[in-house]
Specification:
about 375 residues; six-stranded mixed beta sheet; two-stranded antiparallel sheet; about 45% helix
Length: about 375
């Protein structure tokens, strides 16, 4: 009888220890991560669409472990990948991937689609892309799928505790307002008025994200639009950044920060944090050597002046050392540049991040147990 009592006691103790370990593992699980936006953050959704805005052929992905293209507009990792690393999580899958099911839903999802903008008429030349309104619809659909897996209350908790990244706006200039001379939007708006319109429409998108449960949202501005190799090739005669696109970025980014500050005031909490990617990228464009780059003007993969014309294909010029180049292709940063941008997002000063950097935000969440 005594042996039976001891056995039962050990079994009970073992069960308690098992439950304790299981609970600790659940508590230590990385937060979910959701991504919205354009080609800077697309992890491969466009692979599943009939569109020309895609990165599913070599030499894209040349520096991934498999050396195969993944749909990312990069030689390797993009910005969401480095953020996933910082979260201690596996990379998010594209929402359209058939692999996004079951337990993989707990990691989050990437809804981004190359070519899209804030406005629905941006990127119309790419035809079949996931515009912002549709990305938000997919997010709502995702939450239904998640609730079917873990229950409604737990799904709501996962979403509210998650980190959300949204990167959009650059295409509204390069693939809309400045796409062709006398574009429809440039005839409709003077540039300062167009920027105000974009900001007002962006505000609606961020408010909708909040309505859908997002409570920690990282919002990136546009980079130095006039300095990418594509614009140098098309608009620059002496290698200087294209002035009109630089003006657009200089108007857009401060107003974005101001709008985000206003939203946080309206909600009474720091829901949104803004990353000044224009300043971040400008630093290593103006002084590439300080960051270990040899050039910030010439793309690693491309053709024509600055390797800035056309698409990056197997027939393009291809640099042997991608780590020496700020830009991988005519529009997109190299893997190493993406890593530097994310380091600034994580630990940058208020010159780069407003009202705080991402590490500070995540630490606040940890300290408050949210």
């Amino acid at each position: 009888m005594a042996n039976s009592v001891v056995l039962v006691s050990f079994m009970a103790l073992g069960l308690i220890l098992m439950l304790t370990l299981t609970t600790s593992q659940v508590e230590a699980a990385p937060r979910a991560f959701f991504v919205f936006g354009d080609s800077l953050v697309d992890n491969g959704n466009n692979n599943y669409l009939a569109t020309t805005a895609r990165a599913d052929s070599p030499p894209y992905g040349i520096d991934t472990p498999t050396r195969r293209p993944t749909g990312r507009f990069s030689n390797g990792k993009n910005i969401p990948d480095f953020i996933s690393d910082a979260l201690g999580s596996e990379p998010t899958l594209p929402y359209l991937s058939p692999e996004l099911r079951g337990e993989r839903l707990l990691v989050g999802a990437n809804f981004a689609s190359a070519g899209i903008g804030i406005l629905n008429d941006t990127g119309i030349q790419f035809i079949n892309i996931i515009r912002m309104f549709r990305q938000l619809q997919y997010f709502q659909e995702y939450q239904t799928r998640l609730a079917d897996l873990v229950g409604y209350d737990e799904a709501q908790r996962i979403v509210s505790d998650a980190l959300v990244l949204i990167t959009v706006g650059g295409n509204d200039f390069v693939n809309n307002y400045f796409l062709v001379p006398f574009s429809a939007r440039s005839r409709q708006f003077q540039l300062p008025d167009y920027v105000k319109y974009l900001i007002s429409e962006y505000r609606k998108i961020l408010m909708r994200l909040h309505d859908l449960g997002a409570r920690r949202v990282l919002v990136t501005g546009t980079g130095p639009l006039g300095c990418v190799p594509a614009e140098l090739a098309m608009r620059s005669r002496n290698g200087q950044c294209a002035a009109e696109l630089q003006q657009a970025a200089s108007l857009f980014n401060p107003q974005l920060v101001e709008m985000i500050s206003g939203l946080n005031s309206d909600y009474g909490a720091n829901i949104f944090i803004a990353a000044n990617t224009q300043q971040q990228t400008s630093d290593f464009i103006s002084n590439p050597g300080a960051y270990g780059f040899t050039t910030s003007k010439i793309a690693c993969c491309g053709q024509g002046p600055y390797n800035g014309l056309g698409l990056c294909t197997i027939l393009s010029n291809l640099c042997p050392n991608r780590d020496e180049y700020v830009f991988w292709d005519p529009f997109h940063p190299s893997e190493r540049a993406n890593g530097i941008i994310v380091n600034m997002i994580l630990s940058g000063s208020t010159n780069y991040m407003s009202p705080m950097n991402l590490s500070t935000l995540l630490a606040l969440d940890t300290n408050t147990g949210t």
